[in-house]
Design a protein that fits this description.
185 residues; alpha+beta; eight-stranded antiparallel β-sheet; two-stranded antiparallel ribbon
């Protein structure tokens, strides 16, 4: 979290519809149904230095892409134990002024995500009152009694990567969705 404090560049305007699409259509669509995420959005291969910063345990991390601007990297993949989809801020690019594209109105954002998550079946939640870089938020499907392995539920983690600016806009630059691998066809 130390890198979050140095991010001075925040979005000029909110694009909550885009953020909701990335979370609930792209990432959830990939985790639950295997649909390729981020279709029609600006992507290009992520630089090797950015890929090297992704967790080593993430399958297919070598195929990560810059998403919308050099400020964000997206990674998705699956192995025998799990399927994941992640978007995160590249702090060096943000500090260098790469455009912020994932702005949301921080006031009430957690409640709006909570409503969408519940509609998508992610009914277990541990949420903060405010959307900020120091408050993480987690949603998941009802548990199966197993915390790991192929029976684990789908989950979503979400964190702001900038505090709200003077207009109340924060960058929703870190979210991870994970779930069990899809059954063989």
């Amino acid at each position: 979290m130390a890198g979050l404090a140095g991010l001075a560049t925040v979005p000029a305007r909110a694009d909550e519809a885009l953020v909701m699409r990335l979370i609930f259509e792209d990432c959830l669509g990939y985790v639950r149904h295997g649909r390729t995420p981020f279709a029609g959005l600006a992507t290009r291969p992520a630089p090797p230095a950015v890929i090297a910063e992704l967790p080593a345990r993430m399958p297919d991390r070598d195929k990560a892409v810059e998403l919308l601007s050099p400020r964000y990297v997206a990674s998705w993949g699956a192995d025998a134990m799990a399927r994941h989809c992640m978007v995160r801020t590249v702090f060096e690019a943000a500090q260098a002024g790469a455009p912020a594209k994932l702005g949301v109105r921080a006031a009430g954002f957690v409640a709006r995500v909570d409503a969408r998550a519940k509609a998508a079946g992610l009914t277990q939640a541990e949420t903060a009152e405010r959307f900020s870089p120091i408050a993480s938020n987690l949603w998941s499907e009802p548990g199966t009694g197993h915390e790991s392995g192929p029976l684990r539920p789908v989950s979503l983690s979400l964190l702001a990567t900038t505090p709200p600016d003077a207009d109340g806009i924060a960058d929703a630059g870190l979210f991870v969705m994970a779930g069990p691998p899809l059954p063989p066809r």
